[in-house]
Structures are given as structure tokens and as C-alpha cells.
Amino acid sequence: MEAIESFVHRNLELSELNTIKDFVSKYKLNEKNRAHEVLFVRYELMRIMRKRTKLSLSDIGAYFGLKHCTVMNCLTSAENMYRFGHYKYHDIVRKYRDELENLKY
Asked: Which domains does the chain have, with CATH numbers?
């Protein structure tokens, strides 16, 4: 409930909140799973959310059941893999790119 109040406070509409939650649930990104297929999509979604919204690290973490320090570490890893062209990262994320880019924030 705290997370919802936080998002509404930042002027995100409830439909936008539900769109992101649906994506997270659809691909089970909030479960403890370190398989590259899940991990890299989770990283990319966090990276996009951080760039496109004014959400805090704690708010982003609320989507995934993670603490802010874990989100910070994920963002650093994602940025490095994105920037330096980790081949698996780009191959996996490419499959989900259209859906990730079309999420409304």
C-alpha cells in the first residue's frame, strides 16, 4: 500500500502502475530467479524505469521485492552490460525490447 501511495504522489496514474506490475508478473521478474533470461530482463526494466521516471530506487525495488541497494547494484550491472555490449544481455533483451519500450510510465 505504501508503494501505491508513493507512485500516486509522483503523478503516475494507476493504469501505468498496473501496466508495469502486469509485465513483472507475466515474466515472473519478482521471483528469486538468477537465470539469465529473467535476470537480464529485470535489469533492463529497472534501467528503463530509472531513466524514464522519477521513481526512487526504493520505489523501483518495490516492483521486484528488492531493497534500494540491490536495485542500485542491478542498475550498475545493467548499465555496464548495455554499454560494453555483453552478447547474452543484448540477445536476451532484444526478445523483449518492443514490449519493454512500449510500457507506459
From this structure: 2-101 (1.10.1750)
pLDDT one-digit tens code per residue, 16-73: 777 888 888 888 988 888 888 899 999 988 988 888 888 899 999 998 999 999 999 9
Could you tell me which residues come within 8 angstroms of residue 11 by beta carbon, excluding any fewer than 6 positions away? Answer: none
* Alpha-helical regions (H) of 1-105: 2-9, 14-26, 36-52, 57-64, 68-84, 87-101
pTM greater than 0.70 (yes/no): yes
Long-range contacts of 81-87 (CB under 8 A, 24+ apart): 81/40, 81/43, 82/44, 82/47
The grid coordinates of residue 62 equal 518495490
16 and 68 in contact (C-beta within 8 Å)? no
